[in-house]
Design goal:
alpha+beta; three-stranded antiparallel beta sheet; 10 helices; 37% helix
Length: 276
């Protein structure tokens, strides 16, 4: 595999790896179709104020990345005095920005549904996005600066949101068994709510995130947000504030895991295609 650097979060998928990524994503899309979750594609960028509405910058300051415009005049002055090629562009050459690079694919989905009233039974959605995380280190396809995330999301009444997670967990466990992956479901902790809030206390009592872990690597997760997004974005199902839950996969991590399991991308692709 060709790389742009050593553990800098910028990896390249070769042809075999890319075919494998598309095959596993096609499988997840078939689940979405079976679960009546139509696919949407959202913009790569989000408005900073939408993310701030989720307390994102309070809870995930270490992951944040912004997309900003360069000021041509200041950039020109900087280039005239700099050694070339430059490896960094200083903040002085940048303008203030109102756009950010999200770290999860489902955030724009809730923004899109803001101030809406869904049918009483709620709605299902699927999306794939390029997500970005400002990590303290990177490692091949296991930990990337920018990566592909597939999500299948339920927005609906509480029981439907919880049922989505139960079905998702069973389906992923069955898939891993078919592929011979030794998977463990582990409780994970995300600072999704203010640590001092009542919701944070509930989170400790009733886990909101569980990860599918293979060989020490989380390749996916199920997440229950209760009515957090419903409240923040005024999303309702009938007369109630919507609850949300999602099944999420890091597609490059699946490529890594299946390649390790089968000894190569081509063999892994045959195994995935053999599931049909």
């Amino acid at each position: 595999m060709t790389t742009l650097g050593t553990d800098n979060g910028l990896e390249i998928l070769d042809g075999g790896q890319l075919r494998l990524l598309r095959a596993i994503d096609a499988l997840f899309l078939r689940w979405a179709e079976d679960w009546e979750a139509p696919e949407f594609r959202y913009p790569f960028l989000m408005r900073c104020d939408d993310l701030d509405s989720l307390d994102y910058y309070d809870n995930f300051p270490h992951l944040g990345l912004a997309a900003t415009r360069l000021d041509p005049e200041r950039l020109g002055k900087m280039l005239a005095e700099a050694s070339r090629p430059i490896d960094r562009i200083p903040a002085e050459a940048m303008e203030s920005t109102s756009f950010a690079l999200p770290s999860a694919a489902c955030y724009p989905l809730y923004v899109h549904l803001a101030h809406s009233e869904l049918p009483a039974e709620g709605a299902m959605r699927s999306t794939v996005g390029t997500c970005f995380r400002n990590e303290d280190h990177y490692q091949g396809l296991q930990r990337l600066l920018g990566f592909s995330m597939r999500e299948i999301v339920c927005v609906g009444p509480e029981e439907k949101a919880k049922s989505h997670l139960l079905r998702a967990k069973d389906t992923v466990k069955e898939l891993c068994a078919q592929l011979g992956l030794d998977v463990r479901l582990e409780v994970a902790t995300d600072p999704f709510f203010d640590k001092k809030s009542a919701k944070a206390t509930m989170q400790r009592l009733f886990p909101v995130k569980e990860e599918f872990v293979v060989g020490g690597l989380a390749i996916g997760s199920v997440n229950y947000h209760r009515n957090f997004f419903g409240e923040r974005f005024d999303i309702r199902t009938g007369s109630e504030t919507a609850h949300t839950s999602c099944l999420a996969f890091g597609l490059e991590r699946w490529v890594h895991t299946l390649t390790e399991r089968f000894g190569g991308a081509d063999a892994a692709l045959r195994a995935v295609e053999g599931l049909r």
